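User: Please run a holo structure prediction.
Assistant: Happy to. Please share the sequence and the ligand.
User: Here you go; the ligand is nicotinamide-adenine-dinucleotide.
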Amino acid sequence: MDKIEQLKKIIETSNDIVFFGGAGVSTESNIPDFRSASGLFNQNKYKYSAEEVLSSTFFNLHKTEFYDFYIKEMLHPNAKPNKAHIALTKLEQIGKLKAIITQNIDGLHQEANSHQVIELHGSVKRNYCIFCNHFYTEDELVQYKGICPKCHHYIKPDVVLYGEMLNQKNIEKALNYISHCDTLIVGGTSLSVYPAASFIQFFKGKNLVLINQEQTPYDKYATLVIHDKIGEILSKVTS
Ligand code: NAD
């Protein structure tokens, strides 16, 4: 049986699927990931590395450079959901998929109309003034260049920067879904950002499926490993 048929069979015989994903889910929407050859970490366009800029220390010390990088590199207001997001929405609508746990901050799962989405690293769609707590949209953050027009303090994107803690409620929800599902599909993630990557160790179900263009440290634990484009694969198994 080829891998597409195997994945179809797994989905057919599962009732409680959870999807855990990362930046590779959105590369087919033209949002670069971090660690692929063409990813953000391998581009040397800036004085500071992407990892350095996207840290809480850097945000506290160099706000102008932070917003310059963040607005140019992390915001993709014209990106649209791709075949992977759409296939996952289909699986949710037919009752197979119980939750999407994502490390992504682009909001594309919600734009594709998925409902049970846990955003472990936050979202570029939400931004708050660090002083008056006023909410700003992505467009407003760009328009005001990160400065709150009401009180002139900084607006902080609701994303988890390197060095910051993940939201405890989100962790609990994610671990609850992962530890109770019968099938965990992991896709488009290098599984190298912690603690998120360690969450899959809580899986106790039957089928661990890994879909990634490159090898991951967890390939050896999977029931099925597919090294291919996730949008292509998921659209084939849900059509
Ligand atoms: P990563 O960059 O470390 O790894 C992405 C993985 O996806 C790579 O192994 C790559 O081979 C694979 N990949 C790329 N395109 C693919 C495709 N079409 N099909 C299948 N696999 C594909 O990303 P990560 O593991 O998510 O961790 C990095 C951090 O980057 C996350 O915390 C996330 O918040 C952040 N990030 C998010 C976005 C986004 O929201 N779209 C974009 C860049 C980075």
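The radius of gyration is 18 Å.
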